[in-house]
Specification:
736 residues, alpha+beta, Alpha-Beta Plaits, six-stranded mixed β-sheet, 34% helix, globular, exonuclease activity
Amino acid sequence: QEKLCRLSAALLGEGSEISQEQLYELLRYAALGKSHSAAQPSWCRIYHQSHLAGVVVVVLHEMSQLHFYRFYLQFKHLRKVFRHRFTLTPSANFPVSLYGEGANLKPQNTPQGLASPSSECITKSSDLQCDPIIQRYGDKKQGLTSYTLTLEEQEKNDYPIEGSPGCKGYISTECDQQRTDSSPLFGLDCEMCLTAKGNEVTRVSLVDAQGQCLLNELVKPESTVVNYRTRFSGITRKMLLPVKTRLSDIQTRLKKMLPHDAVLVGHSLNSDLQALEMIHPSVIDTSLLFARSEGRRFKLKFLAKAVLGKEIQCEQKLGHDPTEDARAALELAQFFIEQGPTKVAELNLEMLLTAEKLAEVSQNKAVLQPQGCGFQEQLNEPPPLSKPCFLDCLQVTGQKPLLLGRQGLDSSGLCQRNLSTSNKQILQRALEDVPLSKFSIIQFSLGPEYIASHLHAGLHEKVRSKLTDMLTIYAGPFEENFCMKSVKKEFGRCGPIQSLTVVTETFQPHVCIQYGVLEAAQLAVESLNGAEVAGSCIKVQRPVTAAMLDCNVLIKELELDVENEGVIYVAGLKKSLTERDLQEEFSQLKDLETLFLPKDLQSGKHRNCCFLKFQNPQSAMDALEALNGWTMKGSELRSRNALAPGHLWRWIWQTNHSNGKQGKHIFYEKMEQLSDSEQDLRKKVKKLDHHIKKLYRSLQNNTLCVVLFPGVNSTHGSQSGLGLMGIKGDEGRSAC
């Protein structure tokens, strides 16, 4: 019996984005699988990869998450078919970020030992100035203080910082910033599991400058464990059963162990400190220390082998050993400090990474000529010192990727310049050629006239304005001396209020309430319209504008969105209730799978609402009925179906909090001029959605399909991208 492929996306928590590197990780595993030593991506899981019929990537050139939600109703097929979605970090040059800068890197003689590369793999001194390590640190040897992250660098890389939003309640190590070049180094690494709260520490290791283990402790998470991530963490339920140590115990021990000028070393150390809920001023991050272009990072396992000649994170072991990882990170930092940037750059790590990847796969050196595309033909010239091309990894396996797109779309040099076709012609070619290819990249575009920066700005203003209107309700009329406290209390039971103001332009007072979540505003309209509040029978409604005329249709479609299937919203919670309290209270609800308690991203405090995800839609409906009139700790709960998909939280919050004033006069000046263009744009988007629908229907079952809105990252501004993915035939079985 044929095994059915399945995709499970354990997407990261509120406000997280998937990077280009993580996307590369997914596509590489989907295309190559374990037989070619590709690892499962860290953020999602493909079951029975070897049974995938193929991989199809659809790139919607120059489009962002903004376009998807501005034209949500027009993207009828996309929102109904793809249940797995994620926000995508934008890139200045998306094709290069995804495919690589070069193609057809001719396999060179693989070094005998990656720790001692042959002279063929050592970079010439004339090329060193282009190396990211030299560009960042110069070519002179320096002390360790030159490699610690500045406050700005820590902030940029999501390190917990004293007084920053979201770090309330974090514990400081109380070490000062008076570090010197002789300050002691300590290697730190943690293993985490996924709980109802997010990532929580399950094991902590600390080693000193001599590599001696000072701490190697199991930690019991505070919240219910959703996924032990045993494959990576090595942690099992059985291991944690007898453990009494809590996070607070570890925090206390670390504070006592670290001297005042301690410098912590780790690989992506920000994740460890966030999970530890600790703030430390002096850090060296080896994932940033060994710099790469385009913001990409080397993995710790590769660096340990290439630089130190050590094998870590072996597949024979169950999960990672945090002590081994902490020691490896420490030794990498010591190597860098002792040898200096020039010696590290001379290792030519990019070349070694390419050689390692090519050594892992078939030694087939046949030249690939993808259908409809042409690669650079100078095979006798040495390979460029650039990011390894994803398509090269496919080439050596004998797979024939298909790359279709319009002229000028692909800046990586992968497509022939004579490709100049419409979306309709690209679709026709795709329908003919995709079945013949195991890996296909199809690029569609709305056309150059729709990617001007002022159009992006106009779209952003319109989406911001419409979202604000959807989060806003007006209530009234009230008596002249009505009690504002009573109004705030009653409307607060529907969800978190961002602002509440009195409207005095009317004959009798009204109030304008802006909520923090869409569900709260809708709940207020549904439950309080016609109710008696503060002694008055009031009407509750949203603003009446041209843009809001289709609001009810949009609300209905959001409710039916596949991402909201089996998810309900519950409001009226007392803020004193903890996640554990809620787990206990809701445990009697049948088939409850996950409880999500959102935080205010500014204050870090829990909001007075939560989301409950059930194993199936029927259980969610039963829960809604059961929760009707339910009181918890003296507070009456209100609930309804969810409206906003999870990955939208940060985007909604940022849009809701942006003042929208910068360049506002320009937006309004041009909006009238753009009205015809936008009407035409809606038609084009609808047609584009239809093209993707036809392409998707033509795919074989068990085909992984990924649709990418790459986002925009230019001098005119930045817009996050969006990814949608699914396996054909898995629509009814996927589970996020």
